[in-house]
Amino acid sequence: MNDLRRRLVRSPVALVSVSILGLMLLLALFAPWVSPVDPGAIDIRTRLTPPSWMDGGSSDHVLGTDNVGRDVLSRIIHGARVSLFVGVATVLLGGIFGSVLGLIAGYFRGWVETVIMRLVDIQLAFPSILLAVAIMALVGPSMMNVVIVLSIATWAPFCRVARGQTLQVCNQEYITAAEALGLRDWTIMWRHVVPNIINPLIVVASFALATNIINEASLSFLGVGVPPSTPTWGGMLGEGRNYLRIAWWVSTLPGIALMLSVYSVNMLGDWLRDVYDPRIGD
After folding, report:
1. pLDDT in tens, 117-166
2. Which residues contact residue 213 at a Cβ distance below 8 angstroms, ignoring those fewer than 6 apart?
3. For residue 119, which of 68, 137, 241, 250 sits 20 to 30 Å off, Cα-Cα?
4. Are 103 and 92 spatial neighbours (Cβ–Cβ below 8 Å)?
5. Residues 78, 57: Cα–Cα separation, whole Å
6. How far is CA 55 from CA 50, 51, 277, in A?
7. In a 10 Å sphere around its CB, with 0-12 CB exposed, 13-18 middle and 19+ buried, how is residue 43 labelled?
8. What is the mean pLDDT of residues 79-93?
9. Which residues make Cβ contacts (< 8 Å) with residue 65, sequence separation at least 6?
């Protein structure tokens, strides 16, 4: 852990990425207290008010208002809660499920491995976003439905990586020694295999987090994700696209927040990959 911290301090890009993600996490956790106003409060009299630094702007709405007078800053802050929650929840659910299946496939091999890997091939044959849109169109918009659907689209990469890493670990002598001592399969898997495959899975999780943040925004943009009453970055992009010429801030500012979050996660993922890849030096 100390070595990881030292590497982080020596990497400006990773340090900035962690800082941005930390700020967004704090805003998401304390959104009700740091938001200037209620994100759902409608005031037609102030609709399409520009940001405070522009002509006609108001200090009451630092980043302006949308087409029905809702405060853009408050909606961006509350939108961070949705994006981070969906991203983390889908990575946890899909990651754990896929990693367990990959661990089982790589350890037991045989027909178990064949069945699991054919399921992975079937899953990867469908574009994840198209599969998510199709399912959401059938089940309807809901936060829980979004999490379930994106988890289904997430598990396959974890399974492939876990299976490949498990195959490598199982060829090591200490696994053969553990088997010779009569340890149970699940004991060997938990004590000796899992600790040695966790690092690559952390890297996969970082990229899956960025992908699912974008996928959630895409579903909300299309109107099949989180219900419209809930502030989301993708929903704000969708609502503001008709006002780009006269009120660019309605969609541009949440787009910047989305870009920064995804960029930070990807840069952090690149850094983690470099740290955990023994073939890449400092």
Report:
1. 999 999 888 888 888 888 888 888 888 999 999 998 899 999 999 999 99
2. 83, 84, 86, 87, 258, 261, 262, 265
3. 137
4. no
5. 22
6. 7, 8, 52
7. middle
8. 93
9. 43, 46, 47, 48, 49, 71, 72
Tokens of 130: 């198209």
Note whether residue 282 is domain-resident: no
**In-domain check, residue 261:** yes
For residues 219 and 139, is the Cβ–Cβ distance under 8 A? Answer: no
Residue type, 278: P
Q: What is the CATH number of the domain that holds 146?
A: 1.10.3720.10
Q: Is residue 281 part of a domain?
A: no
The residues, any chain, with a CB within 8 Å of residue 69's CB and separated by 6 or more, are: 41, 42, 43, 44, 45, 46, 47, 49
Tell me what percent of the residues of the chain surpass a pLDDT of 90.
52
pTM of the model: 0.89
Query: Does the residue 187 lie in any domain?
Result: yes
Q: Domain limits at 168?
A: 2-276
**Is 14:254 a contact under the CB 8 Å cutoff?**
no
**CA dihedral sign of residues 280, 7, 92, 257:** negative
CA distance 203 to 192: 20
Contact assessment for residue 232 and residue 225, using Cβ atoms and an 8 Å cutoff: yes
- Judge whether 242 and 231 are in contact, CB under 8 Å: no
Alpha carbon distances (Å) from 244 to 79, 254, 263, 273: 20, 13, 23, 38
Question: How many separate domains does the chain show?
Answer: 1
